[in-house]
Amino acid sequence: MKKMDDSVRFLKNVWALTKSYWQSEEKKKAYLLLLAIVALTLGVVFMLVQLNQWYNIFYSALQNYEKEKIFSELFHFSWLAFIYIILAVYAFYLQQVLIINWRRWLTNRYIDEWLEHKTYYRLQMFGTATDNPDQRISEDVRLFVEYTLRFGIGILKAFTTFASFVVILYNLSGPLQFKLAGMDIHIPGYLVWTALLYSIIGTWLTYKVGNRLVGLNFVQQKYEADFRFAMMRMRENAESVAFYSGEGHEGSVFKKRFTLLLDNFWNIIKKQKQLTWLNSWYSQIAIIFPLVVAMPRYLAKEITLGGLMQISSAFGRVQESLSYFVDMYSSIAEWQAVVERLTGFGLHMQQVKQENAQKDLDRKISASEDIIAREMDVDLPDGSSVLKQVSFTLEPGTNVLIKGVSGSGKSTLLRVLAGIWPYAKGTLEIPSDDRIMFIPQRPYLPLGTLKESLLYPGTKTRTDEELKELMDSCSIGYLYEKLYIEADWSHVLSVGEQQRLAFVRALIYKPLWLFLDEASSALDEETEARVYTLLMTDAPSTTLVSVGHRSTLSKYHQNVLYLDKENHSLYWKEKEAL
């Protein structure tokens, strides 16, 4: 019963993943391509029927030494084969076109859903059930589309092949008559029942041998992705690892994850070895089996050599269509694992959106330019409190320095203001997001040119001359010559250079509110003074809210908001008391 429930659930998951594309804005083009593929597939089956009839005519001519008939049928075979090849090639080509279109649409959908409402951040910070979302989008979407279309067209071809050849086989096989316990047994079309029994046995044995492959393939994809991620993470933090001389530890992590990968892969190999044994015996016996069961009629001269060869061909087609599950079991197992991963990924994204949405924090877009918090609670994911019933107002034109001991919740408070921290309650009135900019301690630099990094996220533009002036002002003018060089700049530039670049970005956008989370921690005091002075003179309408421990920051802010870790509260503090 559980197996049946699992199968039903799997088919429902396949339909849920499939229907979105076939009900999308591209459905007309998709259905036209599918209709063409179906027509070509049916054409291929029709040509197989014609070739099956050719077997009878040609081999009967060989048996009777009909020279003219033999050469005529060879010519006949040539154009039958030519038409078959054309149909098969274009059936394959159009399938690939449909796969590309479907994959493009589904990949874009997953990317949009992953990025929507900062789901990517919430999955990483608060989600525990989804691993390697990049692999789900890049690899699993491709496999799902390829397997789904392949199996859909394969089942159609298997069904039409069976329907076409079972009649031929039934008519050719004739009745099987024998005595059993004194009774006359008469089985019409016995080769059809023989093919059916042969396929059922093969399918059952394949299922018994290979049913564990679904779970093994699912786990294998996870281990492969974890192994790649570990190496990628070291590459991103190569300098830190080098400073610590942590190669030994990193190597042990790599080898541990690789060992898990190999152990599971070894289990897959053993299962596939068993399947290969079974499939090899099954396919080889299928070559001679119809000849053996039809040989009595041939020796009794009830059928010709051509009839025997036609029976062999028809039996092979019927058995092949009935054995589709046997031939494709390994791929079907991987397909099931792909469907489980994609379904789980989509479900986890929805759960994160629902569970981690700021249900209790009433975050409103303010009609004024003030930022107002009323009776706000801020917690950690484990339920422990960071701030309790705090209220404050930030007014434009009054720069604020947020201070407090480490762990008091300064950065968490900024996350709440940014709308990315779900564990908060109360009321928050804040201007629209396009009027606010947040600069973390280590700014994000996208892949691409240095100019693209300066202009990130790309909603404003500046001429090269304007960028040069700003870069000179922020003490990174020496990088101007590299403006159009593509690189992974987060690894090329030092943290100090990245922070200066972030200040250039702030001067480009000049937001109403600029939140700086220890954004000058890697700068010397002279450079820090320069960039803060630039912000106050070149962007006078921008209000600064800084998080930092340096006493040098105090002179650039009019007020200080102090977070009391012990009492989970905050209050305004005189700068002279710091």
List the helices and strands and how they pair.
Blueprint: H1 2-22, H2 27-63, H3 67-115, H4 119-126, H5 133-173, E1 176-180, E2 183-187, H6 190-210, H7 213-236, H8 238-244, H9 247-299, H10 305-322, H11 324-327, H12 329-355, E3 361-365, E4 371-379, E5 385-394, E6 400-404, H13 410-418, E7 424-430, E8 436-439, E9 448-449, H14 450-455, H15 464-473, E10 486-487, H16 489-492, H17 495-509, E11 513-517, H18 525-538, E12 543-547, E13 559-564, E14 569-573
Parallel strand pairs: 3-7, 6-12, 6-13, 8-11, 11-12
Antiparallel strand pairs: 1-2, 4-5, 4-7, 9-10, 13-14
Which range does the strand content fall in?
5-15%
| Count of strand segments | 14
- Cα-to-Cα separation, first versus last residue: 70 Å
Structural class: alpha/beta
Summarize the main sheet: 6 strands, mixed
Briefly characterize the structure.
The protein is an alpha/beta fold.
Description:
With 578 residues, this protein is of the alpha/beta class. Helices cover 64% and strands 13% of the residues. Strand 1 and strand 2 form a beta hairpin. Helix 4 crosses helix 12, helix 6 packs parallel to helix 10 and helix 17 packs parallel to helix 18. The strands form 4 sheets. Strands 8-11-12-6-13-14 form a 6-stranded mixed beta sheet, with helices on both faces.
